[in-house]
Amino acid sequence: MPSRRASGQLLFDTLSMTQLNKDRKEITPHDLPRMFQYTTTLMELMEYGKTDAWLSMELMFHLSILPLTRQLTNISGNLWGRTLQGPKGRVSPFACISCKKVHCSG
Predict the structure, then answer these.
(1) 3-state DSSP helix/strand/coil % of the chain, to nearest 5
(2) How far apart are CA 17 and CA 2, in angstroms?
(3) Which domain of life, per UniProt (predicted)?
(4) Per-residue pLDDT tens over the stretch 21-49
């Protein structure tokens, strides 16, 4: 699991730099215990978390993620509201039938 997290972090860092021209400070897991010792460093850690959240939102808007999710949801025959809520188990029965037909014919 650490490799997936590291690759996601690398992608986030790369996109924030190339798309938004904004650099972010990397905090290693080794630094975390030290940052909880003092109020000033804890506030600094909270500021880094807030900055990361804002960068994520800026990337989402810059890359037009929401309109893309709506288009992909409509193509797959699902409801966008359900997609935004995030349940993984809901699949359109028509999509399942189409997938079976394609799988059987190929």
Answers:
(1) 75, 0, 25
(2) 22
(3) Eukaryota
(4) 888 888 888 999 999 999 999 999 999 99
36: domain CATH number is 3.30.420.10
> How many angstroms from the chain centroid is the CA of residue 59?
10
Rounded CA-CA distance 7/60 in Å is: 18
- d(Cα 47, Cα 37) in Å, to the nearest integer? 16
- Residue 47: give the domain boundaries: 2-105
Residue 93 scores a pLDDT above 90: no
Whether the pTM exceeds 0.90: the reply is: no
Which residue in the block uniquely carries the two structure tokens 């900055």? 51
Length of the chain, in residues: 106
For helices 39-62 and 2-20, the axis angle rounded to 10 degrees is: 70
Q: What is the pLDDT of residue 105?
A: 46
User: Could you give the number of structural domains in the chain?
Assistant: 1
